[in-house]
Request: fold
Amino acid sequence: MTNSEPKFRFSAKAGRTTTQPISSLIDLAVQNRNVISLAAGLVDEQTLPVGEVRKLTERILSDELSGQKALQYGTTPGLIELREAVIRHVCELDGVSAEDMSITPDNVIIGSGSQQLLYIITDILVDPGDIVITEWPSYFVYTGLLTSLGASVRAVEMDNDGMSIKSLKNTLEELKRSGDLGRVKIVYLCDYYQNPTGITLSPERREELLEVVRSYSTEHRICILEDAAYRELSCEGRAPRSIKSYEPNNTMVVLAQTFSKSFSPGLKTGFSILPDELSEAVLDQKSCHDFGSSNFAQHLILRAIRSGDYAGHVEVLRRRYMDKRDAMLTSLRENLGDFEPEQTSWTTPGGGLYVYLTLPERIDTGPNGNLFKAALSEGVVYVPGEYCYGPDPRRRPERNHMRLTFATVDEQSIHEGIARLRRAIRSLTDGNYRPAGAGFARKVEQA
Ligand SMILES: Cc1ncc(COP(=O)(O)O)c(C=O)c1O
Reply:
């Protein structure tokens, strides 16, 4: 091809869309088997339900009729029996009835993963220049999607109880004062064992959040997009009720969940429960995307739910991830408990797959920083925190955090990975470790 040949002219949206930086981190770990990846956002491969899926697949295909039904196209909203099962499942998790939430199977849409639904829901509400409120930090695939759609982000502080209601109110009030409230379309939050921090929105804040967003829905209704991807992976008792479950008339909250984390990401099947007003618009878009998610996967998941295999598997996962979480927390205490205790801390997730580590501000955890390079040469990778801060024009991404996952590697590698991380930190900051003492005790408390 010569230089004078015309080139494709890409859309503005394609120009705004970039590859997720985490892909290259996962590649790094995959290419080099000696590297321990505390970065990859995959589930624990050893726990994937191979036997159950084999059995259920055989059942589907053991009779011509059921095999043909599953191998045919499905409908755009998804298999009706699965949508009914989803309602029963969510009602059981929330301890309320479908009538309490004013939902029917018409309010349920099955997606090709919950990611597709997060995308479509945002796409039908947000024009370039509109505002989406997120947590700070937030799930980087979602904030990447916001960049792609040309949305502007306003991020709200979090603490150990999740999104700060005070900071949310202040943000909304500021936007009202500047005349920008009309551009606010969505408040997005990952409210269970958040990706990346592992933090869960406390039960006390859930209803309040709903009320605050409702009170600012004056020019139009602001949607609360509740991403509950990790909800079922609780290690400590029952996870709190969803924000959705506090809404009796089903008008503002979209609940997005997935079977990826709790059963198998390879089936890439998720669901959302939406207000009537949004369902039709989402279905119109979904019919342009794929006019229905994998019908076979839906038949399989329906059978897993009906047979009890799904519930049994979730129990296995919860125990497994609890052991791995504990291994990571113990390792962090042992390896970093004596490192600048006033400025080093980590979260203690009640479930999910992630721990968020905060280091002193002068330590740059970014992909081009010295720590990332040192960690790589020690043979460990993490997700730099700076990827997790959406494009909020008022703020700069924070650079002294990292997301660590305990999901993909076994306990021994978790311990080894954290020991390598300590060595990497030490190689940059030698002399700043103190013998475990008062600082260590404080760290345990923080953790
Ligand atoms: C917070 C969060 N939401 C949604 C998803 C999407 O998952 P899936 O599309 O597989 O349902 C993920 C996947 O990692 C996630 O971390």
The pocket of pyridoxal-5'-phosphate is lined by residues 41, 113-115, 139, 190, 195, 227, 229, 258, 260, 265, 268, 270 (CB under 6 Å).
